[in-house]
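Example 3.2
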Amino acid sequence: MVAARVTVNGEEAPIAPAPAHTTVLDFLRERGLTGTKEGCAEGECGACSILVARPGVDKPTDWVAVNACLVPVAALDGQEVVTSEGLATAGAPGTPPVLHPVQKEMAVRGGSQCGYCTPGFVCSMAAEYYRPDRCAHADAEGGFDAEHGPNGFDLHALSGNLCRCTGYRPIRDAAFAVGAPTEEDPLARRREQAPPAPVATEYAQDDSVFVRKDTLAETLRLLRERPDAVVVAGSTDWGVEVNIRSRRAGCVVAVGRLPELRELRVGPDAVEIGAALTLTEIERRLDGEVPLLAELFPQFASRLIRNGATLGGNLGTGSPIGDSPPALLALEASVVLADADGEREVPLAEYFTGYRQSVRRPDELIRSVRIPLPLSPVTAFHKIAKRRFDDISSVAVAFALDVRDGVVRKARIGLGGVAATPIRALATEAALEGRPWTAETAEAVAPVLRDEGTPMDDHRASAAYRSAMLGRSLLKLYTRTTEAVSS
């Protein structure tokens, strides 16, 4: 097997002798690329943002910003990375490098003070700068909302980047000032060629091994042999365990680039989403076809996290505060579990068995998530958290209601953060079905929803607050649906 290597700013670099758990951040800094900073080591601040060449949605390659602090460098074996140092281009002999357009705008508009966060902001901005479908979207009056500039720049691209001294206005000004890439821009031209194909990897150091197989079948056979293996895709959860809790694994198995886990199909009876597609890829490929997921995605962590996180990972961790399970429960989704002998389909409502526990065996992988069609027409995702974006839910509520002739024919409600597992609000569903969709019904059933689950007190919210938010969420849904009809 070829020695593990990664291309950084156009130059190949061997990964050895780095330990198998080494993050991309530590690997880069060891090589002297210290523009990439460690601020939090858990994907919260974006100081470590870098660009990775990934399969594109509108072009062969997309430049995708990810948190270097979370990704094992072995996961980028054979891949192509650009850091903040690699964005500038060489000037004439004897002259300094020419700043990249986003670097220049950050400088001239006062977007940097201490500079610690600046390289991460620049890389996240560069990913949005190179987004192929970036274009201006004016409203009916010809104006632009506060989160989208006249150049089409989506400020959500920076939702995972924090700055503690500059203030965000000059950073926003820089983002809204960048133009379109020129034809001579080498990173823009690079989008027209396919990204590096995934390579089989077996990187062993210090009694630990990082493995990526070519096929799902090979991976499943390996998991049967190594039931102790840790499975990673975007590593947005395992990376935190490694950095903050000093967790180490004898065997890490990467599944994020397996083609069998990266399919997305919309058929007459179901939408099937591969478990290893990133949330960003799902969002852009579905393009609003599942409205409840379209409402969920902007509230799921940050763009940097969504560029790595997967549905398979979010369900696989079994966390009661994951944001996707409530939405998928409301959509009556099921998970397709695969092992070396075959597959089985399990309704998500029967998947979770306890705190961070599920029916999935150690030798099984989540291959895909299936959402049955047709979809209920009235949907909403309510996330209650201390920050609007890039935060963990105190409570998450997902609604999918079929309202016909003014009557609730079917109700499905998923809840997160109010029990040891994500749950369905079964009592509330039963109380709604068959009743008219009116303010009186919402008022009458809100106390039922308020009493669902077994919420607890913790540092994010009290049990009483969580219950109160459950009750208010149904009233909020009714108000929103009636306002939509009247408008």
